């Protein structure tokens, strides 16, 4: 798919992440909140936001439609209210991958309190932390239409971009990320080296699973959904390879922790593995 749509609450970092992600992927970057789009249609974004919310949503939809005229590969940062209109959801679903950037209420509140953006200032002045939590609980089901969810808590911009790039890569190869998260799978080896060196991933993805029961569940999933290549009999664990569209996935379980496995490997970088499990 040629377009990546970033959705989520105001203050989660969609614009900042979107710019860096687009640059990393060599995609065009768009932001539905960019003033030039509103000026082109003859509207003041902040004036509509405060005085005519229905018109604000209408113009927001028109801007999304205008952006989608460009058929180039692109990353599109959207306003927090983009999901309130069904037509917007349908447009995004039909034209790309929707990524929900998640954050907890405390992190969002801290980011909003440190911003001078007019919408964030308005929220800061009108809503307490408890009000924000109620608002987020009410709005979050709207964001669940996303194809992918990426946690942004306590992560740098670069780390969030790595998450999105990897998740999109797996999604495009029909690999269910929920299976990897539920079984605490780790990405290791040359895959993680390339990922954190900010160069394209190679075709092999090395997945390490610490617990044998988790390994069996992940193996069953891949065996049921993808082409089995081969296995490798080892005294101290398990190894299997599957062909998943353009990727070859290696499943490993050596009956030891991922940290011990990394210590025994012949590579050393600051972060030696990537965990699919969301931070709590």
Can you put this structure into words, describing what you see?
This protein is of the alpha/beta class and 280 residues long. A six-stranded mixed β-sheet has the order 8-9-10-7-6-11. Helix 1 packs across helix 9. It is elongated. About 2% of the residues have low confidence.
Question: What's the short story on this structure?
Answer:
It is built from 13 helices and eleven strands. It has helices at residues 14-25, 35-40, 45-51, 53-67, 86-95, 105-113, 118-126, 129-143, 157-172, 177-182, 190-196, 212-225, 258-263; strands at residues 3-7, 28-31, 74-77, 97-102, 148-151, 185-188, 204-209, 227-231, 238-244, 247-253, 274-275. It has a six-stranded mixed sheet with strand order 8-9-10-7-6-11.
Give the SSE layout.
Blueprint: E1 3-7, H1 14-25, E2 28-31, H2 35-40, H3 45-51, H4 53-67, E3 74-77, H5 86-95, E4 97-102, H6 105-113, H7 118-126, H8 129-143, E5 148-151, H9 157-172, H10 177-182, E6 185-188, H11 190-196, E7 204-209, H12 212-225, E8 227-231, E9 238-244, E10 247-253, H13 258-263, E11 274-275
Parallel strand pairs: 1-3, 1-4, 2-3, 4-5, 7-10
Antiparallel strand pairs: 6-7, 6-11, 8-9, 9-10
């Amino acid at each position: 798919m040629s377009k990546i749509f970033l959705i989520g609450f105001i203050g989660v970092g969609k614009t900042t992440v979107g710019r860096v992600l687009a640059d990393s992927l060599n995609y065009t970057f768009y932001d539905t909140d960019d003033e030039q789009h509103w000026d082109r249609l003859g509207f003041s974004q902040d004036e509509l936001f405060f005085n005519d919310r229905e018109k604000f949503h209408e113009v927001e939809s028109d801007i999304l439609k205008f952006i989608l005229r460009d058929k180039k590969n692109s990353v599109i940062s959207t306003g927090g209210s983009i999901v309130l209109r069904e037509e917007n959801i349908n447009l995004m679903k039909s034209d790309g991958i929707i990524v929900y950037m998640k954050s907890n209420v405390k992190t969002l509140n801290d980011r909003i309190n440190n911003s001078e953006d007019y919408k964030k200032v308005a929220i800061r002045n009108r809503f307490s932390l408890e009000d924000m939590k109620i608002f987020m609980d009410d709005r979050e089901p709207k964001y669940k239409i996303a194809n992918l969810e990426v946690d942004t808590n306590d992560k740098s911009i670069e780390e969030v971009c790595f998450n999105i790039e990897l998740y999109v890569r797996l999604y495009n190869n029909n690999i269910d990320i929920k299976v990897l998260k539920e079984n605490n799978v780790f990405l290791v080896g040359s895959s993680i080296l390339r990922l954190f060196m900010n160069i394209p991933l190679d075709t092999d993805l090395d997945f390490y699973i610490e617990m044998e029961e988790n390994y069996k569940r992940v193996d069953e999933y891949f065996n049921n959904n993808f082409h089995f290549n081969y296995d490798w009999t080892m005294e101290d664990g398990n190894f299997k390879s599957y062909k998943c569209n353009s990727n070859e996935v290696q499943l490993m379980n050596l009956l030891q922790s991922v940290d011990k496995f990394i210590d025994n490997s012949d590579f050393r970088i600051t972060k030696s593995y990537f965990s699919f499990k969301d931070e709590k």
